[in-house]
Amino acid sequence: MSLKFLSRYSPYMLSLLRIVSALIFMAHGTQKILGFPASDMNPGVMSLPWIAGIMELVGGALLILGLFTRPVAFLLSGLMAFAYWMVHAPQNLFPALNGGDAAILYCFIFLYLFFAGPGPISLDAKAGRT
C-alpha cells in the first residue's frame, strides 16, 4: 500500500509542528516572566534567565502566529543551543542525565523551521513571506 497520499498534508503538519512546539515553548517564558504556571523561578530583570524568558515568551507568541517565522526560529534555535551548553552540558555530557533533552529538541525544531518556513497556516503565508 502506498502512503504517497500523505504528502499532500505535509505543509499543514509543518504548521502544526510550529504551533504546538511554540505553545509548549512559550510556557517556559510565561513561567519565568509571568509566574505561570507557578514555580520558584524569579529571575532578576536583565539577567540571562530573564532575557531567555522574554525570548521564549515573545518568540513563542510570534511562532504561534507564524509571524517573522524564519528570523525568530533562527534566534530561538541559537538560544536553545546556548542554553544547552551553558546550563545543561556542564552538569553531565549526556542529555538524558543533564535534563537538556528539550533544549536539544527545540534547537533542532527551530533550526528546521528556519529552513522549512512557517507552513501554510501562518501570518507569514498570508502576507506572502514564506
UniProtKB/TrEMBL annotation:
Keyword Lipoprotein: no
Membrane topology per record: Multi-pass membrane protein
Main location: membrane
Places the protein is found: Cell membrane
Record flagged with keyword Transmembrane: yes
Record GO cellular component, one term: plasma membrane
InterPro entries hit by this protein: DoxX, DoxX-like_oxidoreductase
Segments crossing the lipid bilayer: 45-65, 72-91, 103-123
Keywords: Cell membrane, Membrane, Transmembrane, Transmembrane helix
Family, as annotated: Belongs to the DoxX family.
PANTHER family named among the record's database cross-references: BLL4328 PROTEIN, OXIDOREDUCTASE CATD-RELATED
The protein, known as: DoxX family protein
Organism: Paracoccus saliphilus
Lineage: Bacteria, Pseudomonadati, Pseudomonadota, Alphaproteobacteria, Rhodobacterales
